Amino acid sequence: MNAFSRGLLLVAYVGAINLASSIGVPARADVVTDWNNAALDAIRVGNTSPPIASRSLAILHVSIYDAVNGIDRRHESYLVPSAVPASASREAAASAAAHGALVNLFPAAAASFDTLHAAILATIPNGPHKTAGIVWGEFVANQILAARANDGSNAIVPPPGGSGPGVWVPTPPAFLPYLLP
Fold first, then answer.
1. Among positive and negative, which fits the CA dihedral 149, 15, 108, 111?
2. Domain holding 23: CATH number?
3. Of 13-27, 47-61, 74-88, where does mean pLDDT reach its minimum?
4. Of the four, 55, 59, 113, 160, which is 20 to 30 A from 13 by CA?
5. Is 171 domain-assigned?
6. What is the pLDDT of residue 15?
């Protein structure tokens, strides 16, 4: 695992913990766990491979982290520097960032993501704080997704050729083709 991947995983982990437990006026921890559960459901339904699933979860959580941290400003941002008033709703930002990321990563599950996002937003009073949080969260998700768009995760790598010890070969019972590098 390269340094960038380790950093991404660490940021996602720290971001989820910080969001759930250590910000001044905490965002409802259920927002993060609800979105994490929604992502895991989409991963299971889509039978997503572990490398793709872990990348998707990292994108989800770093989007949430930068969205909330951009409002709270207690920690260094991962990618997106703050450009939102500190009065913006952290819950709205977290939900909008999660929604934006997951709809892009798992479009087949968009309807369930839309339902969850609407349910979370319904618990937040309408007003400029909610609106600012939503706009900020959507912006952050788009920035994270754009940064990861050409990261090589969808590269087609031919299977190693040859035969003998140390060379990949299809295995029984399915003899499936080479899946991931």
1. negative
2. 1.20.144.10
3. 13-27
4. 113
5. no
6. 45
